[in-house]
Amino acid sequence: MGNWISVERGKENVGAVKNYCESVVFVRFYGQTNSMKGPQDHEEVDGPDHHPKTQLGHILNKLDQEIRKASAAHQLEITDEFKELLRDVAKSRVCTKECENEEECHKRLLGDAEKFVAIYKKRGCESEVLHQDHSFYWGTRQQMLFGKVIVDWLPEHIETKTPPMDPIFGTLLNPTGGLVGPGDLKWMHDSLFDDLGPFAYHSAVHDAFGYLKTNHNSGPGYCYLNKGIFGDWSPFGGQLFGLRYWNGLLGEAQPEEAKADQFVFK
Questions:
Q1: With 80 as the cut, is the pLDDT of residue 112 above it?
Q2: How far is Cα of residue 153 from the mean position of the Cα atoms in its chain?
Q3: 35, part of any domain
Q4: Does residue 48 register a pLDDT over 60?
Q5: In the predicted model, what is the mean pLDDT of residues 243-258?
Q6: 3-class state of residue 264 by DSSP
Q7: Cβ-count burial of 139 within 10 angstroms (0-12 exposed, 13-18 middle, 19+ buried)?
Q8: Is the residue at 8 inside a domain?
Q9: What is the pLDDT of residue 116?
Q10: Please, is 260 exposed, middle or buried when counting C-beta atoms within 10 Å of its C-beta (0-12, 13-18, 19+)?
Q11: Domain total for the chain?
């Protein structure tokens, strides 16, 4: 592990990664955009077409801006504005199946925020910037899926066996994560993003596992299926075999044909 050339990983570990990938196929998120493909993806009722589409997206954008007010990563603190923005997040992220109310959701988010700040400070650098022409990406299922993988595999969660943070905090650790293509290239994402298809799922988990390995030394890394000539730390690792894997998995699962009640909300 930790190489740029792929190393042999036990079948049991690769199996655990595949089991995890299977578990996120039918996941959706409270507050996410309802559609993630085509021109409607960029439409926003009260703003330009590149702005966030949902209320959750707008709030996450504001949270990101609040975080960037800290002059350095080690100086990040939870401000009163941060707390109030989390209260607004709770209105979108509250579980609607009577498992919590808005106040309970807000309390949960505040607890997660304490963990987030500690992880952010320990990482020691600011999050990558999601540029303005890609602001529509805030609050999408794709970004939230990336965020879920992050919080599920952070060592602080695994080692303490405590519940993972809300996926929003995974997105705030790396807002561009899950975009199809390198970095923040809007044209490539718009060209290749396939909603519930292999490019989307692969991009979310590939970016997340790579980010985790690079920044937190956790998870399987970019080469998450342990196949290919590039290893866990290289963004080139796992690309071809990852897409092949998702092509096969989604060919059987058929999420694009699934009914809404087949999806589990997180």
A1: yes
A2: 11
A3: no
A4: no
A5: 95
A6: strand
A7: buried
A8: no
A9: 99
A10: exposed
A11: 1
pLDDT for 119-129, tens place per residue?
A: 999 999 999 99
List the beta bridge partners of residue 230: 5
Helix (H) or strand (E) holding 265: strand 264-265
Residue 161 has pLDDT above 80, yes or no: yes
Residue 188 placed within a domain = yes
User: How far is residue 247's CA from residue 252's CA, in Å, rounded to a whole number?
Assistant: 9
pLDDT range class, residue 192, cuts 50, 70, 90: low
* Partners of 264 in beta bridges: 27
pLDDT band at 114 (very low <50, low <70, confident <90, very high): very high
Whether residue 5 is contained in a domain is answered as: no
Distance of CA 107 to the CA centre of its chain: 22
5-16 per-position pLDDT tens digit: 444 455 568 999
**Alpha-carbon distance 62 to 81, whole Å?**
10
What tokens were used for 179? 């975009």
Q: How far is CA 162 from CA 100, 121, 128, 155, 215, in A?
A: 18, 20, 27, 11, 20
Q: Which domain holds residue 67?
A: 14-30+53-253
User: Which residues are CB-neighbours of 213 under 8 A, at least 6 positions away?
Assistant: 2, 219, 220, 221, 222, 232, 233
